[in-house]
Design goal:
The protein has 350 residues and is an alpha/beta fold. The protein has one domain: Rossmann fold (3-Layer(aba) Sandwich). The protein contains seven helices and 13 strands. Strands 4-5-6-3-9-12-13 form a seven-stranded mixed beta sheet, covered by helices on one side. Strands 7-8-10-11 form a four-stranded mixed beta sheet, with no helix packed on it. The longest helix is centred in the middle third of the chain and has 19 residues. The structure holds 2-acetamido-2-deoxy-beta-D-glucopyranose (2 copies). The site of one 2-acetamido-2-deoxy-beta-D-glucopyranose has 4 residues, from loops.
């Protein structure tokens, strides 16, 4: 009996160990880095018709909102050294049979979660699904597979609490972790909200230890919060039970240079051949924190490949033609489908 348990344990750790690659080691033994490559036109894309995905949020459904061009739907990510497997919804569902997968983060997580649920539903239209939202938690299930794919809206990962002085962003408190504890796979993301000021900033003070600040350099605050997250993961996650992913910083195209100058995503119909500046500053902070961790975390290193997709945002076709320029989210079908192909590849390869 004891031996049998030991054998099972070894088998499980071996299987899970094989799924995970450490940050900085996202290259496979063959030397192929799936995140290095280029966008190529492919007539067989998109992977699904958005009209066949009944639960997609209108704000991502650019065609329905009147976007006149369609070329942005026709690009496939081609890694330089190998091929990215075409998404196989049935295989993905079999992989997550009996499992709970959760996306945790802001509306860019919502974007990727919706893309994944659309990809799975359109691949398996006959499979019954349920979709419920309670507060910040959205839960999508395939009862036949006993599989759930959840989205927990949580922009900072660390907590915001209401206190006498006002709303306090607590850089070293992470109580909402109880929602993702025990999941089979979690895909985290946080960045965009760290930049908000004025009415869009959902806190009045920042607290670290016993110190309260009116404000702080946002990249520094982001790094501190990520550290709190990293220490929580290292002390609470059993890597033989939970696969941990981090969705890399999703770039916006509100202006090409860091100062916000240059063209935005409005009217863009083609990817950029190359991106003018180097790695995103938030990406550098994130990678630095990931390197300090003992838990294997797979970085979905999508920043660079998404930086090229200036054509992939809703622009004015995001909010039902209200004229608001959205260069942060992504049209669906679109760029997040590629992130999910990479997620699938990370689960089946290595
Ligand atoms: C369904 O999956 C959950 C975990 O996600 C598990 O606890 C439960 O036993 C499973 N039910 C069946 C009928 O397999
Ligand atoms: C992520 O991709 C960028 C290029 O876009 C590269 O410079 C960086 O080293 C990659 N990070 C990791 C951890 O592989």
């Amino acid at each position: 009996m004891g031996l049998y348990v030991l054998f099972l344990f070894l088998l499980l750790t071996h299987v899970h160990g094989a799924y995970v690659s450490r940050v900085g080691r996202s290259r496979r033994a063959s030397g192929c880095d799936l995140y290095q490559g280029s966008w190529v036109r492919d007539g067989s894309y998109p992977l699904y018709e958005t009209a066949s995905c009944p639960f997609v949020e209108t704000e991502f459904d650019c065609q329905k909102n009147g976007r006149p061009d369609k070329d942005y739907l026709k690009y496939r990510w081609q890694p330089s050294g190998c091929n990215l497997p075409r998404f196989d919804g049935r295989d993905f569902l079999l992989k997550i049979k009996g499992k709970r997968v959760m996306f945790v983060g802001d509306s860019l997580s919502l974007n990727q979660w919706q893309s994944l649920t659309c990809m799975l539903h359109t691949a398996m239209p006959q499979a019954k699904y349920t979709s419920v939202r309670i507060g910040d938690l959205s839960k999508f299930t395939f009862p036949m597979y006993n599989a759930s794919i959840m989205f927990f809206r949580n922009a900072f990962l660390v907590d915001i609490t209401s206190e006498k002085i006002g709303r306090v962003l607590k850089l070293d408190s992470i109580e909402s972790s109880k929602l993702w504890k025990g999941m089979d796979a979690v895909i985290f993301n946080s960045w965009h909200w760290w930049l908000h000021t004025g009415r869009k900033q959902p806190w009045d003070f920042i607290q670290e230890g016993n110190n309260i600040y009116k404000d702080m350099d946002r990249l520094v605050a982001y790094g501190k919060a990520l550290n709190t997250w990293a220490r929580w993961i290292d002390s609470n996650v059993d890597p033989t039970k939970t696969l941990v992913f981090f969705q890399g910083v999703s770039p916006d195209h509100a202006g090409l240079s860091t100062s916000g100058a240059g063209p935005n995503c409005g009217g863009q119909t083609e990817p950029l051949p190359k991106y003018p500046s180097g790695q995103h500053p938030a990406e550098l902070v994130l990678e630095k924190v990931l390197r300090t961790m003992s838990t294997p975390v797979h970085l979905l290193n999508v920043t660079g490949l998404s930086q090229l997709r200036i054509d992939g945002h809703p622009s004015v076709y995001g909010h039902g033609g209200h004229g608001y320029m959205d260069c942060s989210h992504w049209c669906l079908a679109g760029v997040p489908d590629t992130w999910n192909q990479l997620l699938h590849a990370a689960v089946i390869q290595n």
